[in-house]
Design a protein that fits this description.
single chain; 88 residues; Rna Polymerase Sigma Factor, Chain: A; 4 helices; 0% strand; DNA binding
Length: 88
């Protein structure tokens, strides 16, 4: 994904283009990053069911704090959220 496309996806996820764009952005984010995030969590907790739960919480946390995301490495930001939840 190019930086321009990722920036547009983040703007849509922030709700800057309306409700429908917001929902489709989060569908795309989940489809794109869920497996990677689950693998990060699994690498720490070593239990699939716990890793899946952590991933769900990470998406909820990301959705709640998306407005604080500054342009940069979005997938890295998601991995950091996931890792922090898995460690705790």
């Amino acid at each position: 994904m190019t930086l321009k496309n990722e920036a547009l996806l983040v703007d849509r996820a922030k709700g800057l283009y309306g409700r429908q764009a917001f929902e489709s952005a989060w569908d795309e984010i989940v489809n794109r990053y869920e497996e990677r995030m689950r693998m990060v969590a699994y690498g720490i907790v070593r239990r699939q069911c716990v890793a899946k739960e952590i991933t769900q919480h990470a998406f909820m946390s990301a959705m709640e704090s998306i407005d604080s995301f500054q342009f940069g490495n979005f997938s890295g930001w998601l991995r950091l959220i996931t890792r922090n939840l898995a460690v705790n």
